[in-house]
Amino acid sequence: MVPSPLALLLALGAAATALAEPLRFVDCGSIDGSIQEVNVSPCPTQPCLLHKGTSYSINVTFASKIESQGSKARVYGEMLHVDVPFPIPEPDGCKSGIQCPIQKGHSYSYLNKLPVKSEYPSIKLIVKWELVDDQDQMLFCWKIPVQITS
Is the dihedral of CA 83, 87, 93, 97 positive or negative? Predict the structure, then answer.
């Protein structure tokens, strides 16, 4: 029996949806905003396997509880409860998909890249991603487990 084009389309749609499934994350102190969804792509399973020399897309949907002129991202690799700063190409949230000034009650899609450099060690750690407002308060903070691999 040959599958119908509709059956194939439905199967492909289900597979694509499975790949784009939101991540399970830990909220680590969102005060001035509330996280609705976190996506890291590609990351079909957790912990996310981050391959050296690859860049990953980050998409965080959140709602702001405050007004803010701007926002700034800070990213850390958490190892043994110590936060090690992790450089990202664009720390300015207003240049990362967020329409500034940020308005209270609005939802935003924050978009950024997480580059995994070839010189990083192959280890398991927690990625901690913060976005702070212009008063240095947390718009969002989330954590996910990752494993850096060759």
Answer: negative
pLDDT band at 108 (very low <50, low <70, confident <90, very high): very high
Written as six digits, the tokens of 93 are 């949230």
For residues 146 and 45, what is the distance between their CA atoms, to the nearest angstrom?
A: 10
Q: Is residue 20 part of a domain?
A: no
Q: Which domain holds residue 65?
A: 26-148
- What is the distance between the alpha carbons of residues 148 and 123, in angstroms, rounded to a whole number? 5
CATH number at residue 120: 2.60.40.770
Cβ count near 25 (within 10 Å): 21
**Above 70 in pLDDT, residue 21?**
no
Segments in the chain forming alpha helices (H): 5-19
Question: Looking at the predicted structure, is the pLDDT value of residue 90 above 90?
Answer: yes
Query: Among residues 150, 149, 146, which one has the least CA distance to residue 40?
Result: 146
How many domains, the chain? 1
For residue 33, what are the contacts with CB-CB under 8 A and spacing of at least 6?
Answer: 62, 63, 64, 65, 66, 131, 138, 139, 140
